[in-house]
Amino acid sequence: NEDGGKPGRSYSLYDQASNLLTNVLNPGGSGNMPVAEGAVSDLFGRPLFFALYDWFMEHGPIYKLAFGPKAFVVISDPIIARHILRENTFGYDKGVLADILEPIMGKGLIPADLETWKGRRRAVVPAFHAAYLEAMVGVFGRCGQRTVDKLDGLLAGAGGEVRIDMEAEYSNLALDIIGISVFNYDFGSVTKESPIIQAVYGVLYEAEHRSTFYVPYWKFPPARWLVPRQRKFATDMAQINATLTDLINQARDTRQEEDLEALQQRDYSKVKDASLLRFLVDMRGEDATNQQLRDDLMTMLIAGHETTAAVLTWATFMLAQNPAAVAKAQEEVDRVLGDRQPSLADIKQLEFIRLIVAESLRLYPQPPLLIRRSLQPDTLPGGHNGHPEGHAIPAGTDLFISVYNVHRSPYCWNDPEAFRPERFQESRPGFEGWAGFDPSRSPGALYPNETMADFAYLPFGGGSRKCVGDQFAVMESVVGLAMLLRRYNIALAGTPEDVQMQTGATIHTKDGLWCRLSKRQPGTAVKAQEQAAVTV
Ligand code: HEM
């Protein structure tokens, strides 16, 4: 490693690569599927998805990649993604991902086996009803205001400009929001540190470590005592479980049986505890054990926290390099919102901000790879420019759908590397087997989605395992961005190249998103040239 391995940096895959990836190239291949051939060094010092992209350019829509004894099929094509995610959705489970996440999320929706998943998905999806989402917009605004108050305080003490790691700020904001909205627990992480916050970050960090570490050494019982990070993980889990169990017991003790219609008709803005936990206990509390509820809450805590923080981080990174987009966004926020806290109706009006969120998710999808394992033999379509007869795969095949590759595919997108939120207002013709991009295919949608793009755009996955928190997440990101853009001018503290990437479950920076923040006069849309002048 060139920098000698700074403390705190996770080398994860790359470290192990030196020991285990001596045989990245699997000369045998499988049937008619190309095999990725490159140097092992292709994988060093950069996130895995960069190498997967280069091999996509070289080998086409589907290829096989061998990691030591293990082989993965890598997919970079909307036609094949559509087949796996929608057309044969129950022919696949989460494979490696479930192995990694089960010790943390138990039988929560993401790693759950099919039977458990069916029951819990039916219970969880109705919890994201319209009245709940509307109430959550208020939570996003109140938590966003805390971040604004904190930044205002820092600016006041720093003479008008402050250097700050915005990734860390977004992470705190997203943690506070997810705690209140999922189980009505205020972490208060924007303003303070506490043992439970440390425990949650510890578990998130471990989830990430496990998702990028090749050997599941934590499965060997002695590792739990011998390896310090595994001892810490056990302590962190115990602390979070105790808090979640308390919250579940409290919710059960105050349970009121409700029917869905009555619940939805309530004025949620006046409900003290509008959390998902409250809903799950009141609606179908007897259906789920405490353990299952814990697993559901833990899953949503992890699934909903880092993903949204990452969207805000990369949106800010791109905006700081695109003054014209900032000017357009600020003009929209001034016009629609002025000084008010955002409402659901405002979010519908903040079209350009929504497109910024969508474009950030296209360039930096969270997670960048979807992981699946085939439960039965299947025949995958060849995909664009692929093998006309497709590819037979046996049961037990591990697959990566590289959302990063699909989102940046030159076959599906014009100028795919460019940050251009307006692209989602334009149509693009398709090719054989792919319907192209057409916004009119999903009229009135809150965000550009996989239906418009016929699976060339998968920010929240697609098919039966699609994200349950998609609308929640888009609204949260829009409120967060709108509240910051109307008050501050944000420039990168260094060059874009200084901001290096690292991947775990999501794409995040290696050393933080360091920005220079200064106050903006609310109500004065910054002209593109002026903004350019403050952007390094
Ligand atoms: C699933 C992305 C926010 C809960 C997924 C999947 C993606 C995704 C791509 C599909 C995974 C797969 O097919 O393997 C995102 C992004 C978010 C976000 C980009 C933020 C911008 C949230 C939030 C919640 C949530 C806020 C809950 C409060 C879930 C759950 C699943 C899931 C429970 C599993 C669904 C199932 O298997 O039935 N998410 N998510 N996500 N997400 Fe999200």
Automatic annotation (TrEMBL):
Chain sites annotated for binding heme: 467
PROSITE patterns: CYTOCHROME_P450 (PS00086)
Needed cofactors: heme
Residue ranges the record marks as coiled coil: none
Keywords annotated in UniProt: Heme, Iron, Metal-binding, Monooxygenase, Oxidoreductase
Pfam families: p450
GO MF: heme binding; iron ion binding; monooxygenase activity; oxidoreductase activity, acting on paired donors, with incorporation or reduction of molecular oxygen
Gene3D superfamilies attached to this UniProt entry: Cytochrome P450
Family affiliation: Belongs to the cytochrome P450 family.
UniProt name for this protein: Cytochrome p450
Species this chain originates from: Klebsormidium nitens
Species lineage: Eukaryota, Viridiplantae, Streptophyta, Klebsormidiophyceae, Klebsormidiales
